[in-house]
Amino acid sequence: MEHWLSGFQDDIRGKMVETKVVGVTFENRQSIIREMRVGERVILRREPHNCHDRNAIRVDRETGEQVGYIARHEAAGLARFFDTYGQPVSAVVTAIVGDTYHDSSLGVRIQFTVPDVKPNGDEFTTLDWEEFDDDRF
């Protein structure tokens, strides 16, 4: 199966994408994920000074608790759009995956619109909550 990012290239701006959050087993993130719900809004923030990945895109709850990151290979293709946009991007949790059995890890899937800036410089909103189809949740 071809990765979603490879088919878009420069046409990715303004596209809605869904992806998993990585790094969810570090620090206290599993206990944070246990409190999360499908349909919850999360915030995506660039971390250009991250010592492990200069393209890092961090995923936080609205409370500021860190959930994880966008995968490195995806962040490499997304970082320039986030940088151009210049502000955090809203996303929504589409799934909490895994089990709560002993030694099992939970995971998170999110959906967001890749930031876009119109040619005249006017910014698009990244996710219009009035138009978002939340009947799925």
Please tag this protein with its features.
alpha+beta; Alpha-Beta Plaits; six-stranded antiparallel β-barrel; 3 helices; 18% helix
Describe this structure in words.
By secondary structure, the protein is of the alpha+beta class. The protein has one domain (10-121): Alpha-Beta Plaits. The chain has three helices and six strands; from the N terminus they run αβαβββαββ. The model is unreliable at 124-132 (pLDDT under 50).
Give me the secondary-structure topology.
Blueprint lengths: L3 H5 L7 E7 L6 H6 L6 E6 L10 E5 L4 E5 L1 H14 L3 E9 L9 E7 L24
Q: Could you give a quick summary of the protein structure above?
A:
This protein is an alpha+beta fold.
Alpha carbon gyration radius: 15 Å
Number of domains: 1
Query: Order of strands across the widest beta sheet?
Result: 1-4-3-2-5-6
Give the terminus-to-terminus CA distance.
Answer: 26 Å
Q: State the helical fraction.
A: 10-25%
| Gross morphology | globular
Q: What amount of the residues lies in strands?
A: 25-35%
Average pLDDT value?
A: 84
Question: And the CATH topology?
Answer: Alpha-Beta Plaits
What is the CATH C level class, in words?
Answer: Alpha Beta
Which parts are unreliable, with pLDDT below 50 for 5 consecutive residues or more? Answer: 124-132
Strand runs, count: 6
Order of helices and strands: HEHEEEHEE
Count, helices: 3
